[in-house]
Amino acid sequence: MPPRSVMQRGAAAANARRRAQTHSSDSARTCIRLPEGVSAFAVKKAGVYRLDIMPYIVGEGNPCADKGAVYFERTFWVHRGVGANNEMYVCPAKTANLPCPICQWILQQRKDPNADEDTIKSLLPKERQLFNVIDVTSKAEEEKGVQIWDISFHLFGKLLDDRLKNQEDGDNFDSFCECEGGKTLRCTFVEKSWNGNSFCETSAIDFKNREADYDPEQTVDAVYCLDDLLIIAGKKDSTGKVPFTYERLKEIFLQVPEVS
Fold this sequence. Notes:
By secondary structure, the protein is of the alpha+beta class. It has helices at residues 11-22, 92-96, 101-109, 117-123, 139-142, 157-165, 216-222, 246-254; strands at residues 40-41, 47-54, 56-57, 70-71, 73-82, 87-90, 126-135, 147-152, 183-194, 197-209.
């Protein structure tokens, strides 16, 4: 277990500011391997939620923080509307600098003057984020403990980055993700619709002092390494195997039946 000092006060806040300053602007089954017994958090209806974003020890490949750092999110990119079931898959190229058959197809199509621009645009990688989150809106939700939150960057993270970048002296919003001295995010979500689909978007984020601190040692055990949860085609696991291959993603994209 990483030592308590790894989660020392100030470490996560520094990395939160770094994320905000350097950033430019249902996937659980196909994009994320949820640990056994862990639930996926989702904002299912408009309203006010009180959320504690928890820090974790960064693993391999996080584009915004070095391995071993204390951080609070995992940025990744996905292709939507893939295959016969119109599912979402992690883009290996944007997320892990690995070959991506969908990006390669897009590149080929852009050389064709007769290509369908709408199809190309719909398949471009879209940015998302993972968080370790505790929903403290109610006692019943809080008792669920740490959940994994997968959400579009534009529906939550963009506003969070803006709030961190534009804070005034003395606000100390960067500490929101600290175990000690952290803040609860009071998030207001409003319902929006696009192309016949409804979703919830963050319209306001307020930083509230927490009623109590989290114990750093217990937090290390309770949270999950977000970098290890992504299903990335062509990426090796801890045993050196590739559970989901480039070839299989290509077959799904081209709607080639899987050979058993």
